[in-house]
């Protein structure tokens, strides 16, 4: 179901061609991280700490080195000493020293699964046997997992040398708090005191994993000239290059990263774990080395999204206008300081026009893997709390929950809490479309209830490079630097075809390695179709200018007398007025008119706009078992202009499913000894197709004027509202607020039975 289309009609943009990489992937021919093999390659294995916190007293590798076939062993001592500099990590930044220490422990093991040594051998079996023979002498230290425990002033330190945040005069030092992020406007306390209606609540979430299907894997070879080649699956080969160079303390130009297909990432593959390990093993052994994680290693040693402990208080006047918000959010970040808490604070009220607010975010360390981005990083957690509170406020006022949101929705041109101008946004249109949708007025069955929620994500632009070249037969070759996770090959081809005026089928897209094209930031933050799309469009325009010049040379006229119209050059004046040359005709004569026709372009566009969405969720509760089933779900989203609508719908549905899993099933579960108890998909239960109804989608196409084809990012927004939509629906069904995620059957059963 589609809302009114964005302004402007296009020939190719907005169509639904078959994805160019589809056949290779469904037939198993596509090469992913664990598929790649290099000649004469060794196999790596990593030794990981069984303790959540321990001092490493000694590491004896002698028995491992004696195993037949073993060619190299590395520990933290083999990693170079580096300065604590700030490096780009995905959409944000972080400490190079922290990254190096997370990749391989140095002095302390900081979580269950922390790498402490690695070995390379001629067979995988020999590597695993040698890894088992590495003897590590640990001194077990106190650990802390829970956010509230870690936040306490008397909490044991997660690690030595923590730079605790300065909390201000008169506030007790909290050893594991590394960031306090305050954000305020107006006088929240006074406005709250005068509010006609006030609601408050505490909300709790556990860390959850991104759940990508493909595990991490990397092949590296350290060559005789000191250069390092890396093959891996990631969300950004250029950032893998930069981060690997930083950790290895070598020049960025000495690292070349070849991107392979990626089997999911969702933010979890915007950083590195294995690449420097494989490189150092290769340097010691003189041969290429592959290191790949098992599923258990993925869960134990890579970044989940933060858990949260959140307090929300909202006040409204008698008409339902929210006049005050007081919000305190504590996010875990693992054993290293993370960056999601500021994004959580910024998105807490980004979709509402509230004049008085006081928001405080806290980053809290705990003995877990360093947390990583997960699709709209930081936003789903806070949105769960705020949107559930808004639903409570609507119920208290006796208002329709969508009407209350319409009364408070942020409008186009407003200024966001971070000082950004929101521009042409479509939250109101999303809410109106949700209210008008048949789902919203459909009758409910026995033991069923309905929840609604809305939410936002800031989206991003950032640097991207693309090149467009013509083959002699008129084929169009697009080269870009962003891994294709959500359909970027198709969207780039569509935008190139639209700009050049050639059929989509004539355009091929290649994802280049870091030595073949200029820098592009990661595929993340809902930036790729927007930013890299602009790079492709501008490169195509550069090719058009060259073709106009070549046509003018063929006609012996000025380039200014030649226009480009629907895939062909048109002469406007002189003896050749009205004559045309197609792209293929110009390409065929390229050798005689000046040589190859190609243009590369780098951009850093900043006219990105935030995205907004509204979700409707119906659940059914089994009162005997406490099991919750989602029986109907609708996603409404402001998508700018959908370049490839099928891909956009897939993003909307996929994000909703992940949010539903976060609400009902998923959580990291640690035992009293600080070890992860559910490190696998059998016990860490993500939703599967049989768990879900068909998810309906409504695309509100409110174009972004800052993009030639109206693009806004779409990948992040869909995961933001589901936690609250599901949580509010279950709360209605059981008659009690369900404020702790996941809302598992035992919690529902207890709520139904007075617990």
Write the layout of secondary structure elements.
Layout: H1 22-26, E1 42-48, E2 54-60, H2 62-65, E3 70-75, E4 86-89, E5 92-95, H3 96-103, E6 108-109, E7 115-121, H4 124-133, E8 135-140, H5 147-151, E9 177-185, H6 188-193, E10 197-205, E11 217-222, E12 228-232, H7 237-248, E13 255-259, H8 275-285, E14 289-292, H9 295-301, E15 308-316, E16 322-332, H10 340-347, E17 357-364, H11 379-397, H12 401-408, H13 427-436, H14 438-441, E18 448-457, E19 464-470, E20 476-480, H15 488-500, E21 507-511, H16 528-555, E22 562-565, E23 568-571, E24 580-582, H17 583-588, H18 590-593, E25 598-603, E26 611-621, E27 628-638, H19 645-664, E28 695-700, H20 722-734, H21 745-752
Parallel strand pairs: 1-14, 12-13, 16-17, 20-21, 27-28
Antiparallel strand pairs: 1-7, 2-6, 2-8, 3-7, 4-5, 9-17, 10-15, 11-12, 11-14, 15-16, 18-26, 19-20, 19-25, 22-23, 23-24, 26-27
Helix pairs in contact: 10-11, 11-20, 12-13, 15-16, 19-20
Please describe what this structure looks like.
Among the domains are: 211 residues, Aldehyde Oxidoreductase, domain 4 (2-Layer Sandwich), CATH 3.30.365; 140 residues, 2-Layer Sandwich (Aldehyde Oxidoreductase, domain 4). 28% of the residues lie in helices and 24% in strands. The strands form seven sheets. Strands 3-7-1-14-11-12-13 form a seven-stranded mixed beta sheet. Strands 9-17-16-15-10 form a five-stranded mixed beta sheet. The chain is globular. The N terminus is likely disordered.
